[in-house]
Amino acid sequence: MRRKNGWKFPWSFEFIVLHLLFYLSALLYYGFNQFVIGFVLQDVTYQLIVLWGLGIIIGLCLLFSLIPAIIIASKDPGHISSTDLEHADTTTCRKCQITVPKDSLHCKYCDKCIPRLDHHCFFLNTCIGITS
């Protein structure tokens, strides 16, 4: 089955673990905040400082890691079109049996040829190619 983006099945083990760790860390963050608020910090000022500080740290982690990962996993890593073949040296893919540019490689996990394939990222469950 050809995969269009990282959200299509089958999901890799690393992809599942990454998402489970994210949700587990969100639960731990909530539980830690409740513990800190309820037992450790009695003063409201310290509670607000800790909550805002941890919230900013988690927010920055989300901004710089999770959001780009979701965007890349949602993109199609590229496909071979007839315009790619007009001005390029071509070869035939042994798996697909189609004509592809020489800089394209076949991904055995996505089961398709990707232009300028760099690697298949198991954490994003998609190929890193020309468009990602």
Task: Kindly state the percentage of residues in helix.
Answer: 40-55%
With strands numbered from the N-terminus, the spatial order across the biggest sheet is 1-2
Distance between the termini: 21 Å
> Tally of extended strands?
6
State the major sheet: 2 strands, antiparallel
Task: Give me the Rg, rounded.
Answer: 22 Å
What's the rounded overall pLDDT mean? Answer: 79
Task: Estimate the strand proportion.
Answer: 15-25%
Low-confidence stretches: none
Q: What structural class do the secondary elements suggest?
A: alpha+beta
State the helix count: 3
Principal-axes geometry comes out as elongated
Order of helices and strands: HHHEEEEEE
Summarize the topology.
Blueprint: H1 13-40, H2 44-74, H3 82-86, E1 90-92, E2 99-101, E3 104-107, E4 112-115, E5 119-121, E6 126-128
Antiparallel strand pairs: 1-2, 3-4, 5-6
Describe the structure.
This protein is elongated. Helices cover 48% and strands 15% of the residues. The mean pLDDT is 79. It is built from three helices and six strands; from the N terminus they run H-H-H-E-E-E-E-E-E. The chain is an alpha+beta fold and 132 residues long.
Question: Could you give a short description of this structure?
Answer:
By secondary structure, the protein is α+β, with helices and mostly antiparallel strands. The chain has helices spanning 13-40, 44-74, 82-86; strands at 90-92, 99-101, 104-107, 112-115, 119-121, 126-128. The longest helix has 31 residues, at 44-74.
